[in-house]
Sequence to fold (537 residues):
Amino acid sequence: MSIAAENTAATQAKPLAARINWVTLAPWLYTIGLFVLWELLVIALEMPPTILPAPSRVFQAILQYWSPIWKNSLQTLYTTTLGFAIAVVAGLGIGLFIGWSKTIYAGLYPLMIGFNAIPKVALVPILVIWFGIGTIPAVLTAFLISFFPIVVNVATGLATIEPETEDVLRALGARKMDIMLKVGIPRSMPYFFGSLKIAITLAFVGSVVSETVASNYGLGNMMSSAQSQFNVPLVFAGLLMLAVEGIAMYALMAWIEKRMTGWAHRSTMAQ
Amino acid sequence: MAHLVSPLVSIENVDMRYGGANGTLAVSGLSMKVGKGEFAAVVGPSGCGKSTLMKLVTGLHIPQGGGVIVAGKQVTEPVSIVGMAFQNPTMLPWRTTLDNILLPLEIVERHRHRLRRHKAEYVEKAERLLETVGLKGFGSKFPWQLSGGMQQRANLCRALIHEPELLMLDEPFGALDAFTREELWCVIRDLQAAQGVTIVLVTHDLREATFLADRIFVMSARPGRVLKEHVVPFARPRELDLMYEKGFNDMVHELHGEIAQARVAA
Fold:
């Protein structure tokens, strides 16, 4: 009884600062800090809004142009997610195919590297010739830019099966298919889910680049039209929306990764 | 010698070379016979082709010269009557210990089609094996929740679940501390006594070989062949105290001398 009373007294006596979970709060505080710093910088340097608008001006623009921003954000989210989804399916397929045998791996790997080295912006005009401007080139650019990390990660997971495991199973009469299904694929899953976080951010890069160059919709298009009218606050509003979408999708991927491959995060779970 | 009448493993004058005609010769003129139900140990300097021997007997490698006969059949492909355990327990981290132990049953031809319908029966068998090695109740744990010694016990269960006639052990206790190692020696000793399985143990540890085996093969440096064959005279069941007796130490000493010589010759 007296101990419990003492405990409550101790909790109450604790200063406010000690009762706040600073780690959970930190991302929000740092973000607010960044905006405050930015605002002060703009005021101090007397920046005109056509060069660097203050965050207050950007938020104002978001409210003012909410309807087009909302529509274009959804369009960009749609092209990005669609391109990303195709990249997941294709990346998983090609990754498994490449990781299947050493010969395929050796043969296709340099091709993949070469392909990945090509700036995807340079492919947009070709996509426009094939499919016209609009949604399709944006989806395809998002796909092309984001499938490579998925392929590499899945193939790596397959290629790094412990030889002892393989020996144990092969001695039991396991076929290649058995080893892939029982060991290779589950093993490559943490690599795969890890790569989704990289791939989704790249997918945004792809879709926005394509929308900027060749589309009448999407945040990329909205920002490039705003820029041609010197509506810089709207450009920044678009950037802010992209950042928000990017963070949201990244968080979703991180959550999926944690849910699907808890065993790979065992050190944190053990605590 | 009675066991020579029906050897389970018979290796005759085997040559095994890696990497084409000019590659390294891993073993050359290797011959040995292991009788049914016998516990054989293979010792030798490092790089003497002990692991090659494992792969030859299990059919993972087919020799270029000579023949390997297991259970009366020439080995031309992996033989599923063999169970294997390595120094690295290689438990799959996404499966529980029990599911890890059941893994061979999903592979071996005569079990894989029965597994789903007779799951309960197999699970019971796995539980019994776990109990034998002192892991009762740990089946639902994930392997990474177990200590190194416990993982190695589970590894032994996995090697035994499909009731192999031959158990091939490649330094299974190498990475464990001295006390855990002695504990597992007793586990394997009791397993062999209870199940009558034939065991070939590849090891660097001469005390381990002498304590466990009926027959010890001393291999030469690369290219490996059998230099000498010892019959271990100590009566079974053997207790750990045996290792402090003079006869035991003399035998370990003799083995040590032979391997030291083989190393110099290399």
Notes: Chain A has a mean pLDDT of 87. The first helix of chain A runs from residue 2 to 13.
